[in-house]
Predict the 3D structure of the following.
Amino acid sequence: MIDLNRRPRMGLLLISPERFAVIGEGTARGSYKERKESEAIWMVKETSSIADVTFTGITWNREDVQRSIDAFIAAKVDYVLAIYLSWAEDFAWIRFLRDMPECPILFCHRMRERIELKDTHDDDEFAEYLCCGGLVGSLEASGSIKRFNRKMMVTFMGTWTQVLERAKRFGTAARTRALLRQSTFGLLACMNEVMWSTYVDIYALFRDIGPEMRFLSVAELENMVDAVSREDAIATMKRIASQYEVLPNVDEDKFLASVRASIGMERMAEKYDLDLLVLNDIDPVLFQHIGLRPGFWPTHPDVKTMVVPEGDIGSGVAFAVLKLLGGGHVNYIEPFHVDLSSGSFDAGHAGPNDYTDPRGKCKISSDVRFAKTKWKYAGAPFAWYVFPEGRKTMLHCSQQTDKFQLVVTQVDATPTEHFLATYSHSHFKPVGKNCTALFSKLLERGVTQHYCITDGDLTGEIEDLAMMLGCEFEEV
């Protein structure tokens, strides 16, 4: 499985001109080379606060370029932060642009907080003047950036604090891109035949987004569930019941069956080393063989596989993106209706939903939607959850053209008690717009009903990632 906790890996490329190296020798602040080497030391130290940094020394010549490229490849960097330390010959830069394998590159010009030059007839002052000439070099470099027209290439200009902030955001997106390309998704067992707009091209999923897909069967899930011992299932059920209120409508035998099925699903995902499982939890074959839809993912904090319902692979991408970018709890919703009187909309989803964030509210309730069906464990309970309050990033992913699209907006989850039976849910208010404007734009865009939410504002990271993946992007 992918390492959700690993830091971004940065390749740091600092470019300077060899012809300036000896200028300023013997002055109070030392030669140009000494000043730039001192600058590089603190740049490495400070970038190491946001990433694992690979740096082979300042790039002065052709040999330095190749050494950096070789080191970046060996370290499997997620991205490169490139900076001209002053003006420099562009032969080093264009070799890097030509020979560095495809990867995200952030080219930055660092503006100094202060320029305090005096009479540059003085050798010390003249050396400092040359040291301050990064804008000259950056402008020169921009012409080659345009000519090479590499994918995943972004330019930025700001103070060092702003450069670090931009590099952190860019690096988070680049790390997510790299992890998606190492990930494995599983589909159990098919896309949803009543929701065709959620269908995606699985070949394009691998080519453009990164995950490899495994196709799993209900028959194997049935075997995995049968292999869960009664003792393990009872222990897990008791632990869950000790943590959350169990409502009177819960049948204990069905509770046990739902927990057991959830454990079986998780073990199946572990067997295939899945980072994310796309579960078609309204597939009749699932109900025929398992008798319910598993309602307690995750059953334990050690469970790492992510799960989305209704066979929607695109929503699985959105879920994984939010998890990898933010690292926190992610929940799954579909908007139900707009309440014009309060300016909010209600949203949530049935089926598996992460219920383990203690800031939310969870009860164990019967799945009343299926309580009157013919299935063996009709009405089997699930974790009925109210999402935590606060600012959320709401992300959608689908493939309505030849490209995947990432559509993002900001919403606030407002104070809510349990009220929508069978659905984990909450009230939401759009940020900076009303519900009519939000959903009119989504209808115009062409999406589906499925969205994922997580804490905070990840809009910038998602925009960077969309660029890196070649996805359409829209902030609504």
About this structure: The chain has 14 helices and 19 strands. Residues 110 and 158 are 6 Å apart (CA to CA).
